[in-house]
Amino acid sequence: MAGIVVLGAGVMGVTTAYYLAKAGRAVTVVDRQPEAAAETSFANAGLIAPGHSNAWASPRAPMILLKSLWRDDTALRFHLRLDPAMWRWGLQFLANCTTERNRHNTLIKLGLARYSREKLIELRQTERIAYDEIAKGCIYLYRDPAHFETGQRAIGFLKAQGYPFETIDPAACVRLDPALAPARDKIAGAIFAPQDESGDCHAFVQSLARICAGLGVTFRYGTTVRGLESKGGRVEAVVTDRERIAADQVVLALGSYAPQIARSAGIKLPIYPVKGYSLTLPIKDKAAAPTLGGVDEGALVAFARMGDRLRLTATADFAGYDTSHKPENFATMLKVARDLFPAAAHYDQPRYWACLRPMTPDGPPILGGTRFDNLFLNTGSGHMGWTMACGSSRLVTDLMLGRKPDIPLQGMTLDRY
Description:
The protein is of the alpha/beta class. The chain has 11 helices and 20 strands. Strand 19 and strand 20 (375-379) form a beta hairpin. It is globular and about 65 Å long.
């Protein structure tokens, strides 16, 4: 019996393998890296944040992208390139930059993110996985009073869906997290999302991969997927640089590289790689380091404590499949960290990282079936892969096993394009 082949050993692929293995299925995971979570899941923001579910495509986004053509200090960086895929994606993105489409897409993301958080909590309790998780909420900081008012209006839609938020003043910020005391006078206010969390995605995936191996999952690391071999309405095998792997079912969970493999089966995925940068610092003074994850909304720099490390992430750079980086790419992150938590970390010992986030033009991921009755998708979650992973993988697993998913997949399947 050929079994199920999951392509990708990041957070999406490994959580999918886990749910399938728990259901008694024979699973093989294929990844080009030497271990699990070695690419996009390696050093992400660490936030599990339904409270940050707003779709990027919004009425404000076109102006931000336009400014980025001549400025390097914007959170979204768009560079003119001779890249037809980027231009096709960009036109679809602009079509979603209306208030109506933004609310529609945000609602879909929020529903999936909330469900996924529930599945993550359930999984960590069942398997007793520890990953430097902090389940005390996340704090979203504003430096400018006018921006703070805008932020409060922006969460109004999420709040109306029943997701809890608290609007707090600088004094309350410090009460929630005393590490913010040095920055109190620089904060106009904050939005606190008590159900949001943070944690080390890499540590989670590594632990879950070991659990999967104990459940009988086979991992074929150091193996590059070249394409899919199909006949009629089925995918018969996965072609790699080492061998041909026969498959009863295939899950495509290769993040930004999913479109390249899907193309070998004649499937077009509207996913574009958006580069994000992360910075990890060793903590110097535990009392001065944050105890909550969050975001400096002015600079759009996320921060999360992971045990004895401080993680910061920022920027969405439309740079194709380039993952190169240089120290100046991290200057804003270092400035924000020193500003908020001046004594927290060894700022002279940074570890730099850049990865590609698989973005869809509207925001929600692409989950579920394809025109091949045994090929399934679990990709396109963009910057919210850690937040959406357990929920996305459980939904895809349910579809594969013929079970009714817990939540509807409308707005998350490929046929919406």
